[in-house]
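Whether sequence alone determines local backbone shape is best considered at the level of individual chains. Part of our work consisted of pairing the sequence of a single chain with a tokenised description of its backbone. This step matters because it turns folding into a mapping between discrete strings. For completeness, the protein is quoted in full, as a sequence line and a line of structure tokens:

_____
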Amino acid sequence: MLNSNNTFVSTAVGSPQETWLRNDLAGTTKQCVLAIWHHPRFYSTTSSTVSPNSTVKPFWDDLYAAHAELIVNAQMRDYERFAPQNSAGTADPNGIRQFIVGTGGEGLDAPNTLFAANSEVNLSQEFGVLKLTLADGSYSWQFIPAGGGTEAPRGAHAAVSRLLQPRGATGNRYANTRNDNWLPMVPGARLVPVLAPMPNARPPHLTTHARKSGA
């Protein structure tokens, strides 16, 4: 779990937190990596323009270099799933898949009107939880709506091998011995946030894109 609130804890390159992340990735022998923090780098919006969040780019750079698989964020009060991509937002089949799961009960945002590149599914006006199943060499996902509401497409994906040459790095900083376990969760673990459904919510709004996979 990383802290993306850079008002209180720096996320910059060379900061204690970013240095810890790089060292932790360099030292792990786990094959697969999932990272969690609050503010997403990529997101869709109701505004007229959208720009990636630059404050968490150092996290993305380190995780992408280490061939991490998943990033889970919140902040935006909806559900959104992205295709694998790099830290610049360019589609990459061996990149990182980002989920936004801000559907835990505080409130819900209006349906987005401007969609970020590589957004596969965006579900607004629906409370629910994300179920992640982490297996040896693969992971699967399912958004479970509260109270039997709208269910987003589910899917699965093979994990990226961390035995690949590290990206944007010299030497073997991230070339670790294969170990089919997840960090920080063991195979089969599930990430299930707790929520309390709220009354008087507007009808759900589901947007899927041609790029989606695993419907």
Remarks:
- The chain has a mean pLDDT of 79.
- The beta strands are 32-36, 70-73, 79-82, 97-101, 119-124, 128-135, 138-145, 155-158, 182-183, 205-208.
- Helices lie at 16-27, 57-65.
- DSSP finds two helices and ten strands in the chain.
